[in-house]
């Protein structure tokens, strides 16, 4: 029994992904569920997932001192890298709008400009990184993403009729309430309810396991999009998968590189490498070719596999040091 618990603790994220994918596949293919029940389940998920993310963020923000939230030099390099690659791939899509690689290029665009995952602070703290610098970057990249995507959508998809301001406010409404509200609630609790605040920050792994549950739901949603997607060929899937894998490797590598230069390697890697894949899926089917929505699902697999390996190494290190 102890070995099972140890395995689950070391490989929580892969287990959560497998569980989420398996549950949806059983639900879709094996259970005689009516269309109405499927719609009800989707509505329930749409409510439960934001609550889990909000709770997880609130706990994480409670553990961060607002005075530590400040601009770091590596933030500039990270933002510049994401913007540059996003604009480069966007330029290729603009020059070759009917090219065979448009779907793969759009997938790469989404993966590179996608903001840092709201859960990244949880894992950064668990890996021993600086949660405050990570949260600061998350705020900046969400604003940059909002402007960048809003600016390029009318250029690449003029037939959609979506203007800059329509896209801007649509993205703002999607991203910022879930990011800002738990942040300000955490600040309010810190200064008005110190006893409750102390109880929140005394929880060691609660935010992490809430994230694992949220990840299971996110993977189930991703599998749903893949199963229900139309005109999805093997070549298209491979192209999207490769684009997302290259984006994942490149961003973790660059993030760790610039983070190491400024003595913040863990936060740098997570800031660029760990993505808000639910947002990536939404951006894909809202503003780009709908098939690109599965790029976020692929990216979710890649970054969680890499982070699982990092967590495994960290747990081994802690065991060796008697922590």
Tell me what the structure shows.
The chain is an all-alpha fold and 323 residues long. The chain has one domain (16-315): Na+/H+ antiporter like fold (Up-down Bundle), CATH 1.20.1530.20. Helices cover 80% and strands 0% of the residues. The protein has 14 helices and no strands. The chain has helices spanning 2-10, 12-29, 35-62, 73-95, 102-113, 120-126, 131-156, 164-192, 194-201, 206-228, 234-261, 265-273, 277-287, 293-320. The two termini are 21 Å apart. The mean pLDDT is 86.
Which percent range fits the helix content? Answer: over 70%
- Total discrete domains: 1
Flag low-confidence runs.
none
Strand pairing plus helix content: what structural class? mainly alpha
**Mean pLDDT score, rounded?**
86
> Quick one: overall form?
globular
Q: Could you give the order of the helices and strands?
A: HHHHHHHHHHHHHH
How is this fold's topology laid out?
Blueprint: H1 2-10, H2 12-29, H3 35-62, H4 73-95, H5 102-113, H6 120-126, H7 131-156, H8 164-192, H9 194-201, H10 206-228, H11 234-261, H12 265-273, H13 277-287, H14 293-320
Helix pairs in contact: 2-10, 2-14, 3-8, 3-10, 4-5, 4-7, 4-11, 5-11, 5-13, 5-14, 6-7, 6-12, 7-8, 7-12, 8-9, 10-14, 11-12, 11-14, 13-14
